[in-house]
Amino acid sequence: MIEIKNLYKTYHLKTGDVEAAKNVSLRIEDGEIYGIIGYSGAGKSTLVRCINLLEVPDAGEITVNGVQLTRMVNTAKGEKLEKIGNRQLNQARKGIGMIFQHFNLLDRSTVFDNVAYPLKYSGKSKQEIKKRVHELLELVDLTDKASVYPSQLSGGQKQRVAIARALANNPGVLLSDEATSALDPEATEAILNLLKKLNAKLGLTIVLITHEMSVIKSICNKVAVMENGEVVENGDVYDIFAHPKQTITRRFINTVSNLSKINKMIAEDVPLVRTSGNDRLVKLTFESESTGDAVISEISKRFDVRVNIVLANVEMIGDRPLGGIIVILKGNEEAIINTFRYLEEIKVGAEVLSNERTA
Ligand SMILES: Nc1ncnc2c1ncn2[C@@H]1O[C@H](COP(=O)(O)OP(=O)(O)OP(=O)(O)O)[C@@H](O)[C@H]1O
Ligand SMILES: [Mg+2]
Predict the structure, then answer these.
(1) From the alpha carbon of 178, which atom of ligand 1 is closest?
(2) Ligand 1 center to residue 229 CA distance, Å?
(3) Could you tell me the maximum CA-CA distance found in the chain, to the nearest angstrom?
(4) Distance between CA atoms of 328 and 242, rounded to whole angstroms?
(5) Distance between CA 159 and CA 146 in Å, rounded?
């Protein structure tokens, strides 16, 4: 388990202070694939680098695999951060692997030597190291590349070497900082599938930093959304997709939702989405693919509203379907308010889409 409590980190630059992490608290259970998403500069790398103390926070408590890496202690001058000793930190870091966007391989070493590198001071014999490296290369499906150099590999293969190296000491946790950002879509999918396999096979806990919602959607169970150094929303990926609360979360979801076509339709003033008077253009979200029709007939029956369907779609979030329909609700103000109240009661997500051209 990874537990982060009230973490703060400020960088002091000549141009001013940058608060890269502001009061971040997160709990990541064993075996989870936990995504952290945010735009550039949101503080994702800072946060993930605090998990293995590559970056030392100003304040906060960090516990990984049962070892407390930082704690706050009371001193005469107030609260102060206390860090674990270097020897214990080195030991704890063996339990935390890390991979990066640009792979960070040793260019002058072969694939074998890159993977063997973290085992150098492990006290293992040459024979044991050889065996372990082959096991790792098998795990990432690269046994035929042991003697080649990184420059002779594709991006996806380089990342697989980096994954094998990160797993050399059999860590319980893998930190992945934009590990697929430099890869094409196919290689991205292959690496994500590999991470999913490692999670299932080894019970590996994965903290996955990304700026792409498609990555979160395909392999994460949990997600935290970061903005300006803060975690603004977090929870189950499915729940976040079904009931996003923050504008930034909706923006990320729109990047992968087929229903986001609606934005273009609004911008182009397509007749189908034109509204007038009390009309509301609404996106409804259902936690199963079949309930959409039932809800629409129910609200037309209960309230004096008419429902025009504009778009309908089913998304797969992990392996669960999430239904979505975009409709125009027509009726008087009271009927519309009652409809929204009812939708909330039956836990159907309802987001009013702004249609600037509404008369
Ligand atoms: N070593 C540093 N010194 C000074 N400022 C830093 C340092 N590292 C990060 N920052 C600043 O802290 C903020 C958060 O940076 P961070 O790298 O954590 O963001 P990020 O979410 O990982 O962004 P990206 O998606 O671009 O990688 C940014 O404003 C950045 O400029
Ligand atoms: Mg980063």
Answers:
(1) 27
(2) 9
(3) 79
(4) 19
(5) 14
Distance 43 CA to ligand 1 centre (A): 6
Confirm or reject: Cβ of 15 under 6 Å from ligand 1.
no
Q: What are the Cα distances from residue 352, in Å, to 250, 283, 326, 329?
A: 12, 6, 10, 10
The fold of the 2-239 domain, in CATH, is Rossmann fold (3.40.50)
Ligand nearest to the CA of 100: 2
The DSSP H or E segment spanning 16 is: strand 16-28
Atom of ligand 1 nearest to the CA of 39: 25
Output the six-digit token pair for 239: 């729940």
Q: Please tell me the distance between residue 45's alpha carbon and the centre of ligand 1 in angstroms.
A: 7
Ligand 1 atom closest to 42 (CA): 21
CATH architecture of 257-352: 2-Layer Sandwich (3.30)
pTM: 0.90
Ligand nearest to the CA of 40: 1
Rounded CA separation 325/341 (Å): 18
Q: CATH 3.40.50.300: which residues of the chain? A: 2-239
Question: Does the CB atom of residue 210 touch ligand 1 within 6 A?
Answer: no
CA of 208 to the centre of ligand 2 (A): 11
Q: Kindly state if the Cβ of 13 falls inside 6 Å of ligand 1.
A: yes
Enumerate the CATH 3.30.70.260 domain ranges in the chain, comma separated. Answer: 257-352
Q: Give the atom of ligand 1 at the shortest distance from the alpha carbon of 47.
A: 18
Render each residue's pLDDT in the chain as its tens digit; 359 residues. 999 999 999 999 999 999 999 999 999 999 999 999 999 999 999 999 999 999 999 999 999 999 999 999 999 989 999 999 999 999 999 999 999 999 999 999 999 999 999 999 888 999 999 999 999 999 999 999 999 999 999 999 999 999 999 999 999 999 999 999 999 999 999 999 999 999 999 999 999 999 999 999 999 999 999 999 999 999 999 999 988 999 999 999 989 988 888 888 888 988 988 888 889 999 998 886 667 888 899 999 999 999 999 999 888 888 888 889 999 999 999 999 999 999 999 888 898 987 654 44
Give the integer Cα–Cα distance in Å for 163 and 182.
Answer: 15
